[in-house]
Amino acid sequence: MFNYKxxxxxxxxxxxxxxxxxxEAIENCDGKVEILNYxxxxxxxxxxIASRMNLYDEEAGGIQVKEEKSGLxxxxxxxxxxxxSIKKATGKIIDYIYDNMEKKMGEKPxxxxxxxxxxxxxxxxxxxxxxxx
Length: 133
Prior knowledge:
The protein is of the alpha+beta class.
C-alpha cells in the first residue's frame, strides 16, 4: 500500500494500480516491448496471468515499486524487439506512466526507470540499458 496525504485527507493505493498503469504503458507500444523479470527472463505463466488480473507480485514480475520519502521509484524490466527505437519506446512508456499516475493518483512518481535487458529477434541478445527520468 502506498499512502498520500493532502489537505483533504489520506488516500491509500494498492500495488495493483501501479502495476496496471505500467502494463497499459507496455501494451500501448503495439507489441514491440514486453515485460521480463529482473533476471531478463520471461515471466512464468502464473505471474503473467496474475498481472493481467491486476494481482501484484513484486518478486514474480518485472515491475518494482519502492516508496521513498521524496516519492515513488518505479523500475520496469523490458525487452525490445529488434528494429524498434529504444529511445522512442522508453520515452513513450515513461511519458504514459507519468501522465496516468498524475491523472489516477494525483501525484507523479519521483523516478521511472526502464531497464532494457535485451533485444529480441530470433534470439534474445542480452543488453543492460537503463533509461530514467
